[in-house]
Specification:
heterodimer; A: flat; B: mainly alpha; two-stranded antiparallel sheet
């Protein structure tokens, strides 16, 4: 089994080669042999070299692996991570349509419940936090937040 | 505007009730975030960014400076009372301060932390006030060659001083530089690695990237690992400031040494308050007359490092203001805010935006002075702060992170950028890759490439003019020496292993 450092070295090497190949096709500046491709090409070669060193280091190093302690792999931990990612996806994907108030409330409430906060407490704190932040950003800081489906109530919010 | 008028004008603007109130609120925010284990000073500043949009530059920077200073101090509170450093800058002397707490000197240890923080912070500010304008007067004469070498030296130094493996810091820096290549290039306006997305034409906005790297990655870590085992929380009973004068007089040279080294380390790109604290704690122990007492709850151990970490905050602003090279992650955000406000950091800022520069200096002084009373309140309320449930706090941090990323351009694309960088930061930290070099690479990449291309055009593709000017030659020599040292440091373990195996 490959150590995490060797996996990372492999991914970085693949990334470096891809960047090098793409950058080679960038145009050059008039009258010069260099252009927009030079900087990424130099960097990709440096990354390739560094990833080779990383792979070598992980082979010769006496340390077992770079990760200090194994990551929890139980269903509950994974569910919490997925909830964080889903809440972020919900905010980014539906924020414009549903508006900050609804999406913010749903995202934070789901997160709190996933993190073990009691249902009624999660709903109450999410609601109050979202309303206070909306008030602070929109009324105090004058930073517009999307209203989405609540746009008809814009004057109130 | 002459320096005295600019300074007085800045002070009068800072002393407006609205700005003072904002500074107090920023202090409370900084203390709460800094006192929460796992939430860093950089995260506090990243989350404050959207609030700075609506503020004028002076108010915005007053808020940032105050919150940073408070967060770095507040990181000592859980370190002293729970043996969990609130921020990485407190980690160096957590065992020492906790040992004092176990001896019933918790309140005194916190008093030492506050007092040394204030003195270190004021020392660093004094250096910043005198050194930055003086360096700026020299820097006005810099051409693209000097800026190129300085940028490269800054990047290299950030790898050199990284606490983690040099190789991993180098990889992190290259990743940051490559991410900085995304968008229209500076020389011919060619779109690079945009994958047809118009949102990427201007490159990756590094404020959402910072929020992702520092805040979102922490939420992911919390989600995966949970609260973890909680140790006993001691309370800070007893007098906080009584006896501090005598202690500081006894260790006055430690205080001076910690403040000076802290300021110097802060000014090095990539080396922030945490490295300053580790270096000065180690040095303090080495040079102490009673080294055997270190680790047993010896107050001397707190003096050097406590002063150094707050001095480093001000030191980091020297390269940030003069050369647009961030001294630490917080000043990387500050540079981003300067650009957002239409201001360009560099030597000209000292003449074109003198009141703003002086306002930053004054903000440091005011922030350090109000630290004493606010820290006293924070120490007295520490039990309540430390009992805030992390599951509620992290959910609210999540909402701040989302809003912060969105509000920069009113764009949900930036929320996606934050998510991507959050995952990247999480994977990197779990594999012991430092994330500060990514930010430095991202901030400095464009500047270095810009100066490289300008230099190439001026030199008509020749390399010799890159070393022609005396200052450029000196900077190039310094950079190349550090490169050779780095390569040697990287290769020597491999060679040693080979020799050992062969022998």
């Amino acid at each position: 089994m490959l150590s995490s450092d060797r996996w990372i070295a492999l991914v970085l090497a693949a990334l470096a080669i891809s960047i090098f190949l793409v950058s080679r096709n960038f145009p050059t500046m008039a009258g010069l042999s260099v252009g927009p491709g030079l900087f990424p090409m130099v960097l990709s070669l440096a990354l390739l070299g560094a990833s080779a060193f990383l792979a070598l280091n992980s082979r010769t190093s006496s340390e077992p692996d770079s990760t200090e302690e194994a990551l929890p792999r139980d269903a509950r931990s994974l569910l919490r991570v997925l909830t964080v990612l889903a809440a972020c996806g919900l905010f980014a994907g539906l924020g414009k349509v549903l508006g900050f108030l609804i999406v913010g409330f749903l995202a934070v409430a789901c997160l709190m419940i996933a993190f073990g906060v009691k249902l009624w407490r999660a709903l109450l704190i999410s609601g109050v936090t979202v309303l206070l932040l909306n008030l602070f950003f929109v009324k105090v800081m004058r930073i517009p937040l999307p209203l989405g489906v609540l746009a008809p109530l814009g004057g109130w919010l | 505007m002459d320096p005295i008028s600019a300074s007085l004008s800045a002070l009068s603007q800072l002393l407006q009730p609205k700005i003072l109130m904002l500074m107090v609120l920023a202090s409370v925010f900084g203390i709460v975030v800094g006192a929460m284990p796992g939430l860093t000073a950089t995260m506090a500043i990243a989350l404050l960014v959207p609030i700075t949009f609506a503020l004028d530059p002076i108010a915005a920077f007053a808020v940032i400076v105050t919150a940073t200073a408070m967060a770095i101090f507040a990181g000592d509170i859980p370190g002293v009372l729970m043996r969990i450093p609130g921020t990485p800058a407190s980690a160096a002397y957590t065992d020492e301060s906790f040992a004092m707490t176990k001896k019933g000197q918790g309140a005194f240890a916190l008093g030492t932390c506050v007092t040394t923080s204030v003195i270190g912070g004021l020392f660093g500010t004094a250096v910043l006030m005198f050194a930055a304008p003086a360096i700026a007067r020299v820097a006005v004469q810099f051409s693209s060659y000097e800026y190129l070498w300085l940028g490269l030296l800054g990047l290299t130094a950030s790898v050199f001083v990284a606490g983690a493996s040099v190789l991993k810091a180098l990889i992190a820096m290259i990743l940051g530089l490559l991410i900085g290549c995304i968008g229209i290039d500076v020389a011919v306006g060619y779109p690079r690695f945009t994958f047809g997305s118009s949102d990427l034409l201007d490159g990756v906005n590094f404020i959402p990237a910072m929020i992702g790297l520092f805040a979102f990655s922490e939420i992911l870590r919390y989600a995966l690992r949970g609260d973890g085992p909680q140790g006993r929380t001691y309370s800070a009973n007893g007098p906080i400031f009584k006896g501090q004068g005598a202690l500081l007089w006894k260790y006055r040279w430690n205080l001076l040494r910690g403040s000076s080294i802290g300021t110097f380390i802060g000014a090095l790109p990539g080396a922030g308050a945490d490295i300053a604290a580790w270096v000065t704690y180690g040095l303090g122990r080495k040079l102490s007359k009673e080294p055997e007492k270190f680790g047993t709850g010896h107050a001397e151990g707190l003096v050097d490092a406590g002063a150094a970490n707050n001095a480093a905050i001000s030191g980091a602003w020297i390269p940030a203001l003069v050369f647009a090279i961030p001294g630490d992650s917080v000043t990387a955000i500050a540079i981003g805010i300067l650009y957002m406000k239409g201001l360009t950091p560099g030597p000209q800022i000292f003449t074109q935006q003198a009141p703003l520069v002086y306002a930053i200096f004054w903000a440091f002084i005011i922030a350090n002075l109000i630290m004493w009373p606010l820290a006293w309140i924070a120490i007295k309320a520490s039990g309540r702060i430390l009992r805030t449930p992390r599951n509620i706090l992290m959910s609210i941090v999540f909402l701040f992170a989302m809003l912060g990323a969105y509000a920069i351009n009113n764009s949900f694309f930036d929320v996606g950028v934050m998510l991507a960088f959050g995952v990247l930061g999480f994977v990197m930290e779990e594999n012991k890759f430092p994330i500060a070099p990514v930010i430095l690479g991202l901030v400095l990449g464009r500047m270095i490439e810009d100066h490289f291309m300008s230099s190439m055009m001026k030199a008509s593709g020749q390399w010799l003019p890159f070393f022609d000017r005396p200052l450029a030659a000196a900077l190039a020599t310094a950079t190349i020496i550090v490169w050779i040292t780095l390569i040697w440091r990287g290769l020597s373990p491999l060679l040693k292993t080979r020799i050992a195996k062969a022998g």
